[in-house]
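Weekly puzzle thread! Below is a chain. First person to post its structure in token form gets bragging rights.
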Amino acid sequence: MNTPSGTQAKQAADDAQDSTAVRTLARFGYAANGLVHILIGVIALQVARGGGGSADQSGALGALSSSPGGTVVLWVCTVGLFGLALWGILEAFLVVKGDTELKKWGSRLKEAAKAVVYAALGVTALRFAMGDGSSSSESSKSASAQLLSAPGGVVLLVLVGVIVLAVGGVFVYRGVSKKFLENVAEPGGTAGTVVTWLGIVGYTAKGIVLGALGVLLIVAAVKHDPEQAGGLDEALKSLTELPFGVFLLGFVAIGLVAYGVFCFARARWPRL
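Winning reply:
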């Protein structure tokens, strides 16, 4: 039975989700996420062609901060990403999908996890906007080192790696099966076809990157070496060690750009 205070809280959350301001912030967040992925893809493409750069969130936001007007854009991205995190929290509490309790809790956890990811990216954007950015790769290695030094840390890091690897698999599945279309009010005609292909290529590419990142975390745990963990930058560059790796990295780089453009399409035609 709902208590009066519980009912009031749910009503307040409903009102917040229906708020034009919150929905607008979420759309800005999708666009900000798209911009970050486009920049990461461009840097990764430079790496595939033999250039340098850090192909991760820090590298993308750092490039943005050094461009004309970049600080203003970073502040806008920060607000949008935190708005998207807020939207994820509201989704976790209000939009409960599934016909069983297990599926409902799975839906809640998924939305809550996405909210945490967007909030973390928002914090990173905020630091760069304030001129205090740091390397995502070093942060990942530091976190892995702390986890490995904790009791049962090896098992925990393997578990994290398996989860990241599984999430990568989900992205590939959503790309190939076109499940991502559930998240966008697909426009008709040529625009709809373009959005669909952007999603297929983009989700598949991001899934490959997350899969590589998960493998790096598992290897770091097995070897008890946090230097093996790295972050998104190391995950992308590790692809070059595979057969035809440079071409694979080039495909993934283009795919990340495609995913970024898809995020802009999601901001333009959101299914909120």
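Puzzle host: Confirmed. Bonus trivia for everyone else. The chain has a mean pLDDT of 81.
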